[in-house]
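Weekly puzzle thread! Below is a chain. First person to post its structure in token form gets bragging rights.
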Amino acid sequence: MKGNRKKNTRPEVQLRSVLHALGLRFRKHYRIVLPDLPSFEGDIVFPRQQLVVLVDGCFWHQCPKHSNVPRVNTEYWKPKLERNVQRDRRIDAALQAAGWTVFRVWEHEPPTDAAARIRHRISETGQRGSEREIPAG
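Winning reply:
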């Protein structure tokens, strides 16, 4: 697990590249200090719009489309992966309670599609909430 990156993963870098090409400016790995999340950093953050984009890996965050529990050492992996999903829910709730919009993108989603959805969300005014969509196809 030492080789698994926490920051600058390939899907995250590709998404940032597309967002930047669209003219959107953001902070990467921006720390958001909240009482319930003492050490939280969003992958891509638009502070002025209070929008946090989190790029989730299909394995680690249990994508409904691609998740699987390894057959070896299942008694370790199943609770670990479930804790990851529970932590994601706690993060979403804490950010939303503080007025942030949480936007989750799966690693399998094409970066251009995710960037278009993010751009659309930024152009909307006053909408808040968590979003975790699985694109068709």
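Puzzle host: Confirmed. Bonus trivia for everyone else. The longest strand covers residues 37-46.
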